[in-house]
Amino acid sequence: MVLGERDILLYGRGYIEDILCGRVFRISPKSFYQVNPVQTEVLYRKAMEFADLTGRERVLDAYCGVGTIGLITAKDAKEVIGVELNPDAVRDARINAKQNYITNVRFAAADAGKFMTDLAQQNVRIDVVFMDPPRAGSDEAFLSSLVKLGPKKVIYISCNPETLARDLKYLTKKGYRAKAIQPVDMFPWTEAVETVCLLSS
């Protein structure tokens, strides 16, 4: 939406690569990626600490982008499912899984809320959901789908404390409890902050 509908490649491969938490990530022009890799590692390591995976869990990475969280999590999970609406990002995520030799991850190009509703209707058990929505936060359709899916843990990463507070209010009314919250100074000398929150049912 921000970048327009058409890319014109003038020079190079049409994508960049970065290394994050020991994984190599390909990022196309229309794909989202955190721009401060040092603090992103701090943020994601805190998210992994909150998840406290044992290797037996099925994990859902909602709003997965190029697969960063899902692919970093995969070594500690039984299975990871990533879902993302942006088809360019999903293509990157699938390539990233291959180039990092990760086989216990699959990615779907779909609306995350509808995807979760479908999983719940199919009685697919998800133990942990990572969600990293845009600044607008999640909508009620997504959050109600999350509640229907009923994971034991939700790791909510937010770049907007106001929408995080709004969404936490909804989730706590539906039976989840906020167990831990950690802000991360993603953009020093600005007001912007990323926050990672652990919720459990």
What can you tell me about this protein's structure?
The protein has a single domain (35-200), classed as Rossmann fold. The chain is 33% helix and 25% strand. It has helices spanning 37-51, 68-73, 87-99, 112-121, 140-149, 161-173; strands at residues 16-20, 23-27, 58-62, 79-84, 105-109, 128-131, 153-158, 177-184, 194-200. Helix 4 packs parallel to helix 5. 37% of the residues are buried. The model has no long low-confidence stretch (mean pLDDT 92).
- Describe the biggest sheet? 7 strands, mixed
Radius of gyration: 16 Å
Count of alpha/pi helices: 6
In which order are the strands of the major sheet placed?
5-4-3-6-7-9-8
Strand content: 25-35%
**Series of secondary-structure elements, N-terminal to C-terminal:** EEHEHEHEHEHEHEE
Identify the CATH architecture.
3-Layer(aba) Sandwich
Taking pLDDT < 50 over at least 5 consecutive residues as the criterion, the unreliable ranges are none
Overall structural class, as computed from helix and strand content, comes to: alpha/beta
Categorize the overall geometry: globular
What's the CATH H-level superfamily name?
Vaccinia Virus protein VP39
- The average pLDDT is 92
CATH topology: Rossmann fold
- The portion of residues assigned to helices is 25-40%
Q: What is the count of β-strands?
A: 9
Q: CA-to-CA gap between the ends?
A: 35 Å
